[in-house]
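F.,

This is the one I mentioned.
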């Protein structure tokens, strides 16, 4: 074997080791972030969603994903962070929580990435954004009123956002003064159903399941359904969304009994048929991305798998998008 071949093999081996180490570090950092977020969310949280913008930005079809998976309130958050000098590409990991509010579900969460307290403090001063003291931290509120979005930089590369009332609860849980969502056995158990390497995954409990589905099929205007009634016997939902050449969605609905699951499967098959009629009326001549949706049942659990091309995503608006 020539000296050149030996050197090239050594370099290739070193490159492979480096790639493995980087992937391991990224997974470890993401797992640590998820643990921090769940420990800091208030126990009233009914729904959470994790996303990895750092993974999604690497996809050639990211603009399509961003358009469909970023709802109006998240777009508002992106604008708020920009005022503080935190660009969208500075965010690596995002964990969002929802809990019941007065008129709509309160939205709050954690973000990790490339930003620091000093940078944010200087930018806030330059923008004449008045700091608001809260539980020993400093919040920057970018919209008027108690429901407006506020941002706190907890430490370099870790921030929290949401209305002041939600941030107070988050800070108390983050400091260990009150129990966090990680103490809820339901979430701990459901995490085992999650493919945590997915770019997007989420969990919804009780009434928030219908909220998720209402957003999922928001574009199907002819599909008039009482989603709360459809999912009244569903205890929880878990979902993974993998994006590569196509979008693959894997959903699991956990019902109270086997009979409830069997009944829900029948209802879901009926909804699938009604959706096909609705799709044909709204999008004649275009392939229906939901037509190949598989619905199965295993005891108390309903499984649903959907594979969708990016070209279909343009018309299927609402997939995975929170209505709020």
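My design for it:
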């Amino acid at each position: 074997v020539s000296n050149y071949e030996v050197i090239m093999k050594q370099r290739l081996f070193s490159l492979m080791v480096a790639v493995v180490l980087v992937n391991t570090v990224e997974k470890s950092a993401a797992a640590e972030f998820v643990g921090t977020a769940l420990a800091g969310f208030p126990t009233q949280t009914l729904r959470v969603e994790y996303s990895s913008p750092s993974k999604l930005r690497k996809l050639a079809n990211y603009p399509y994903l961003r358009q469909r998976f970023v709802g109006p309130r998240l777009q508002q958050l992106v604008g708020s962070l920009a005022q503080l000098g935190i660009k969208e590409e500075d965010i690596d990991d995002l964990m969002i929580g929802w809990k019941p509010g007065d008129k709509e579900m309160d939205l709050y969460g954690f973000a990790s990435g490339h930003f620091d307290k000093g940078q944010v403090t200087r930018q806030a001063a330059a923008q004449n954004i008045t700091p608001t003291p809260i539980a020993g931290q400093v919040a920057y509120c970018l919209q008027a009123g108690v429901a407006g979005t506020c941002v706190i930089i907890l430490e370099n590369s870790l921030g929290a956002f949401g209305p002041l009332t939600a941030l107070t609860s988050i800070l108390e849980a983050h400091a260990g003064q009150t129990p966090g969502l990680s103490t809820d056995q339901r979430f701990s158990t459901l995490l085992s159903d999650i493919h945590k390497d997915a770019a997007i995954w989420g969990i919804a409990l009780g009434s928030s399941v219908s909220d998720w589905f209402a957003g999922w099929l928001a574009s199907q205007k002819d599909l008039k359904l009482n989603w709360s009634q459809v999912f009244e016997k569903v205890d929880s939902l878990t979902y993974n969304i993998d994006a590569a050449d196509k979008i693959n969605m894997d959903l699991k609905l956990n019902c109270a009994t086997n009979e409830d699951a069997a009944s829900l499967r029948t209802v879901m098959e009926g909804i699938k048929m009604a959706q096909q009629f609705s799709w044909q009326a709204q999008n004649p001549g275009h392939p229906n991305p939901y037509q190949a949706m598989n619905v199965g049942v295993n005891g108390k659990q309903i499984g649903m798998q959907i594979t969708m091309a990016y070209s279909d995503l343009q018309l299927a608006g609402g997939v995975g998008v929170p209505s709020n």
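Residues 13-25, 317-324 have pLDDT under 50 and may be disordered.

Talk soon.
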